[in-house]
Queue: 2 jobs
Job 1
Amino acid sequence: MATYVLLPGFWLGAWAWRPVADDLRGRGHDVHSLSLTGMGERAHLARPDTDLETHITDVLNLIRYEDLHDVVLVGHSYAGAVVAPSVADRMPDRISRLVFIDSGPLPDGMSHLEFSPPEERSRDAELVRTEGDGWRLPPPPWRQLASEVSGLPDDTLERLVRLSAPQPWATATTPVRLTGAWEKLPRLHVLCSFPVAEVRARIGVVPAFRHMATEGSAYRELPGWHWPMFDRPGELAAILHDAA
């Protein structure tokens, strides 16, 4: 039996992990899915000052108060890029492995926003200004994004549209602060929207990818949507089971 902590990316809460979490529990594992502050059932707690540090504290407190050890810490997208490595950097003795779902750790001093192309940054900033009261990023047009995704059940898409919450913008703009303690931990990258070959091609030329080049990193390809917990939950759960 392994202990998993599952962290969702932008706009999502613990609910997004339900099929994966149920599968892992069925295999005998201890699974903790977490809604970060302002997301999921904790959407009412969102504030303009909800930032990356808030979300890091959410995870540190879960591990501390549930007395979790040898944790397989799984982060999707935003949570993989900045939350998971930050938690592991501060509590490396409690983490056994990091798993990045279609994501990778960003270097010290870089924010999640800086990973996006300039035109995407400008577009999102405008959405925050015009539709998010100046501090929230609205969820994307899920039905449009999912229009070419095969194998996505209608009820899953309906839940995605209904349960997604605006993302506090400060979580995207806060730079990550790392000491390097997390780098000793083994890592698995589950790649969905881009292949291993593309990652390896970018490692030497794009600074944001440099942490994906270490000897402790392994890769698994799971081609499909950027959100594999929705279109390929069983296969994702099997990969996570193997990772333990």
Job 2
Amino acid sequence: MKAYDIKKGNVVEHNGGVYQVRDIERSSPQGRGGNVRFRFTMYSVPGGNKLDASFDGDDDLREVDLARRQATFSYMDGDAFVFLDDEDYTPYTLDADAIGDMAGYIVPDLSGCYVQIIDDAPVGLQLPQTVTMEVVETPPELKGGTATKRPKPAKLSTGLEIMVPEYIANGERVLVNTTTGEFAGRAD
């Protein structure tokens, strides 16, 4: 597959690793005879490590067949996370290394996840855009004469810490953006 044929979301092999393309920047130099260059922002599968790489438009890249199955988080098996396929209840076990930093967003019965599969083996996970989580510890709202919104730290049920608006209290359920790790609103 040529570099100019690749779209966001494609999975390619590069330097002996497998990467999913998340962003593509196209640059064409001024003047005659300039080759168009493509800069890909890619994340390794599994692991999710970021890699920036540049290619000429006619560089060859091998596309890898990556299947995505919608699944729901079921339970922990030691350090491994077990997800069940939403259609046929096939269990997919992903170890802590494959999950990485995403572990902080995985709550009981989390649905809307996609398990990434290469050659019938689960290798990665794609979380939903937002996850509903419970605030377990945050300082009380300060009563005062200020009209400004001051964020405060909050510890969530998985141990993850985020900044939330002052009006959020212990026990409330909040939406957390899984891409940025930021507060995205009240859940209920």
